[in-house]
Amino acid sequence: MVGKKLIASFIVIVLIWMALGLQYGPLELRSDEFALFGRVIGSLILVSAIMERVLDVFLTFVHGEGADLTSGALAAAQKELDAAKTALEAAPGDSAAEVRFATAKGELDTAQNARREQRGDTRRSALPSAIVLGVLISAIGFRALDSLVTVVPPTPEDGWWVQGNVFHAVDILLTGAVLAGGSDGLHKLMEVYRSVTESKNT
Length: 202
Description:
Shape: elongated
Largest sheet: 2 strands, antiparallel
Strand order of the largest sheet: 1-2
Number of helices: 4
Radius of gyration: 26 Å
Order of helices and strands: HEHHEH
Distance between the termini: 43 Å
Number of domains: 1
Strand content: under 5%
């Protein structure tokens, strides 16, 4: 933990030193920044919602079969456990009913672990996919900070390290990260809704 803090502090110091060395001054906010702020936030939410739907289709295509299999196995294991419990209550002390109940309980635990592992794989795929898609959308022109400030367009003679180029690069990464976080949050909400719906139907 201490090592990560030191690395983060070092990166911040290097970035500040580069900004001072390259003599980057503050950017000028646009005169209607408050009105633009609401539009930018609304646009980010809208694009994040669209990204969530796109990512849901992608993740369903990649992980849908595994999700169906684990859900089916979990439902079957729960049904078998309920039947074994009913049989054990009808014949208490019966060794065959006790063995059936213990076996069904073990199968349910296995099915639950498989379902959790499958959902974990889906979540691990969701955020990187969202970051890639968010950065791609930002790179083709949808950017948050660019709408709020006035940036002087760089010329080819300025070189890459001119403030405008660096600003656009940071804006692409920042907007992509915001879009990814928003779409991932919406996706988790949809997953919770699906889990509640599935639990009610089973």
